[in-house]
Structure formats: structure tokens, C-alpha cells
Design brief:
This protein is α/β, with parallel strands linked by helices. The protein is built from 12 helices and 18 strands. It has helices at about 5-10, 35-45, 80-85, 90-100, 100-110, 130-145, 155-160, 180-195, 265, 305-320, 365-380, 400-424, and strands at about 25-30, 50-55, 70, 125, 150-155, 170-175, 175-180, 200, 205-210, 215-220, 220-230, 250-260, 275-280, 285-290, 295-300, 330-340, 345-350, 355-360. The strands form 3 sheets. Strands 1, 2, 8, 9, 10, 11, 17 and 18 form an 8-stranded mixed beta sheet that branches. An 8-stranded mixed beta sheet has the order 5-6-4-13-14-15-12-16, sandwiched between helices. It has a two-stranded antiparallel ribbon with strand order 3-7.
Length: about 425
């Protein structure tokens, strides 16, 4: 396994940029080279603003280069729950913004010519049990009431589309699709740079302060000054002395990828190219990439103490879903971190003048990250926060984050262990 992360091994987009090597003053400073930060940089540069992105590692190093690659509409939450939690006006504002998220992603890919395997043939939310099908039926009712073109599929149609009879039905969303996520991030960086943005990799911000009407960032002994600031580090916010620190629960998600499947098997397994995830509390996902590799994912830290347990679960899960693939080896295995908020709604914190932090996508990073980043750039440059998909808050607090992180990992490990006992 020369490169554990499939996305790094297979990306058709390539990007590299030097570290910040001199002091600089710009209109907009961005911390974090993922979907949010790069979408913001691209939008700001296209508007003619001077912008600099500081990335501690390389573009897409965090969740943007490690996720499943499902470009979905909306949030994990059903629409009525969003409205209950946020109120009617704010809730529908966010629902409307994220309903259009896949279109914005795929339009941006087409406009910038990003080679990220865009496949817009929909996604399938799979019912793992009768209770899951009941949940999907309710989500279907709520979505259709708001004009979403959703279809509720029975078990037979679900089996025909997926190639497995393991599910009781599915909710099909034709607005959505799949991408190669790291290639998308690199393509955003390339496009932003071409539009005039300065992107600095291997440039970790160590300190952030507000001084004399501007923001001052210290990174690698150099100083970046900016009129406006966007913190877009999400689940990978580390080591910055700052008046702001995002609060969230970090949840690990691991993935395992096979070699490209033979054409004969690809004709029966997700022949339509949909990406899938299920309704289980400890959820799992699967999809194909353009080369025909099957990519299976689930909650859990494959690099931690429970790594062997999660890997064994993945082998069993693959065989249970697709018996013809029993015994096939995984050629890639990697994991990333998800920033979860207690209510599963993304946050924008306005922690100072002309400064926002966007985080907490709770497993829905591609569409919301693109929308939040683009809109944050527009709002910061115009001074109009009404352009944002959610109203900024002054602070956001999460309680018992460390305990909840242990809960998620322990729960995933227990479920994967129980499945081993059941299989035995």
C-alpha cells in the first residue's frame, strides 16, 4: 500500500505552492486550504480582491482530501427538524441554499474545468432496516413538500441499482452526485491561483490578533495583514493562538478501496454510478470511482487502537453486500475527521470585525463547504452578512467534546465487534 489515501494516489489534478516567504498585506486572509477556504479564495479573487490562503500542510490535507466524495443536497437533518431548530425564516434560508449546493458544485467544476471525476447521477440513502425505510419515507414527504425531486425506491429497485439485496429501500436524490474530492480541492486551488489568489502551503499560522483596524497572522516567522479574515480549518484547527477556537466533536471516518473491479462486476454493482450511505446509527457508505474501485466507508479510526477491528469489519461488510467480492483485498485504507456540532447544523461565528469562521458541516462538507466559502467571501468583501446562508453568531460552545468523541469511537468499535460475533 504505497499511498494509503486513494484520492492522493488517483488525483488527476496536481497542485503545489511554496510557503509564505515574505510579509504581505491583502484584502482577505484565509486560514485553511480545503473546500471552504479555497471556494472563498476563488470568489474573492474573481471579484478583484487580493487574497492569501495559508495552509499548514498541503491543499486538501484535511477532510476535503479524505471524505467519501458525495456531493449531496441539504444536511443530514430532515428539513422540518432544521426549521424547528433554527426557526422558519432562518431554517428555510439554509434549506434553500443547500438544496442548490450540488448544482453550484457541478457548475463550478464545469466552469473551471476541474478534472475530479464529476458524476451527477444521483445518490441513494439506503434503508438498513424497516425503521430506516420509515425514516426515509418521512424524509421523502418533507422534501417533496419543498419541491425536491426525490424518489422513494422499494427493495427491488434498490437491489437493481446497487447490486445488493441487503437494503429495504432507498431515497434517491437526482440533484446529487459523486466527485474525486481531493482533485476538486486541488482544482479549486488551481482556479483561485489563476484568478490572482496567493496560496501558501506548509504555512502554519501560529498566532492571530486584531491590531489597528486589521487582522495580523504570524506564520513561519512572516506576517500577513488583512482587512478581512476567514478561518476555514474545520476539524483540523490546531495550534493557533487566537481570540477564536472552533468548538466541535471530532468524529473519525475510515475508508477502504479495492482494485478496479472487472467490467462484468461493474455492470451489476452501482451500474448507474450513484453514491450510497445507509440509515444505521453507525452508518456506512459505498461508491465506485471512475476506474471502478469499490470504496467502502464507516465511522471509526482505522489508524487508532481499533484499526484492526474496523478493517476486519470492512472485509465482512464487503462480502455481505457483494458475495462475489468476498476475499478481495483492499489496496487503500485511510481516515479523516468530521467536525460534528451538537445540533448537526453548520456554524458561522463572527468573532471580530470583518472576521468569520465556518465549521461544523457534520459530514456534509462538499456542498456546504463550497456554498459557505463562496458566500462568506461575498459577505466579507461587501460588508453584507445577509449574503450568508446562516446568520453569524458571536460565539458557539460545545460541551463534553472529549467525552463525546470517545463515545462515537467506542460505539463504532462495539458495533463493528458485534457484527464480527454475529458473522461468526
Amino acid at each position: 500500500m504505497s499511498e494509503p489515501n486513494l484520492w492522493r494516489a488517483s488525483s488527476a489534478e496536481h497542485f503545489a505552492a511554496p510557503a509564505l516567504d515574505h510579509d504581505l498585506t491583502v484584502d482577505l486572509a484565509v486560514i485553511g486550504g480545503g473546500f471552504t477556504g479555497l471556494a472563498a479564495a476563488l470568489e474573492a479573487a474573481r471579484q478583484g480582491a487580493s487574497v492569501c490562503v495559508l495552509e499548514a500542510e498541503t491543499v486538501g490535507h484535511g477532510g476535503s482530501g479524505r471524505n467519501v466524495g458525495l456531493a449531496n443536497a441539504g444536511l443530514w437533518l430532515p428539513p422540518e427538524t432544521v426549521v424547528v431548530q433554527m426557526g422558519a425564516t432562518a431554517g428555510h434560508r439554509l434549506i434553500t441554499a443547500l438544496a442548490a449546493a450540488p448544482a453550484r458544485v457541478f457548475d463550478l467544476i464545469a466552469r473551471e474545468g476541474i478534472a475530479c471525476e464529476p458524476t451527477r447521477t444521483g445518490t441513494l440513502h439506503l434503508a438498513h432496516a424497516p425503521s430506516g425505510l420509515k425514516d426515509l419515507a418521512e424524509r421523502h414527504r418533507q422534501g417533496v413538500a419543498l419541491g425536491a425531486p426525490l424518489r422513494l425506491l422499494d427493495a427491488a429497485e434498490t437491489a437493481r441499482r446497487t447490486g445488493t439485496s441487503a437494503y429495504h429501500g432507498a431515497l434517491f436524490d437526482p440533484r446529487a452526485g459523486t466527485i474525486q474530492p481531493l482533485a476538486y480541492a486541488r482544482g479549486l486551488a488551481r482556479a483561485a491561483q489563476a484568478a490572482g489568489a496567493k496560496i501558501c502551503e506548509h504555512t502554519a499560522v501560529s498566532a492571530l490578533t486584531r491590531q489597528s483596524g486589521h487582522w495580523q497572522l504570524v506564520a513561519g516567522g512572516k506576517t500577513l495583514r488583512a482587512k478581512a479574515l476567514l478561518v476555514a480549518t474545520n476539524a483540523y484547527h490546531l495550534g493557533i493562538r487566537s481570540p477564536f477556537r472552533p468548538q466541535f466533536v471530532a468524529v473519525s471516518y475510515c475508508q477502504f478501496a479495492t482494485a478496479p473491479l472487472p467490467i462484468s462486476q461493474r455492470k451489476t454493482i452501482l451500474a448507474g454510478g450513484e453514491g450510497c450511505w445507509d440509515t444505521a446509527t453507525v452508518m456506512s457508505s459505498f461508491r465506485l470511482d471512475q476506474a471502478g474501485r469499490l470504496i467502502l466507508g464507516g465511522i471509526g479510526n482505522s489508524e487508532g487502537a481499533g484499526g484492526p477491528l474496523h478493517a476486519a469489519w470492512a472485509r465482512r461488510k464487503l462480502a455481505a453486500l457483494f458475495p462475489t467480492l468476498k476475499g478481495i483485498a483492499f489496496e487503500h485504507a485511510w481516515r479523516g475527521r468530521i467536525a460534528m456540532t451538537g445540533d448537526h447544523i453548520p456554524k458561522i461565528v463572527g468573532f471580530g470585525p470583518d472576521a468569520f469562521a465556518c465549521f461544523g458541516y457534520s459530514g456534509r462538507g462538499i456542498g456546504p463547504g463550497t456554498v459557505f466559502g463562496t458566500d462568506a467571501a461575498q459577505a466579507l468583501l461587501s460588508g453584507n452578512p445577509d449574503l450568508l446562508p446562516v446568520t453569524p453568531v458571536a460565539t458557539h460552545t460545545e460541551r463534553f467534546t472529549a467525552l463525546r468523541e470517545v463515545y462515537y469511537e467506542t460505539g463504532a468499535s462495539l458495533v463493528h465487534a458485534i457484527s464480527a460475533r454475529a458473522a461468526g
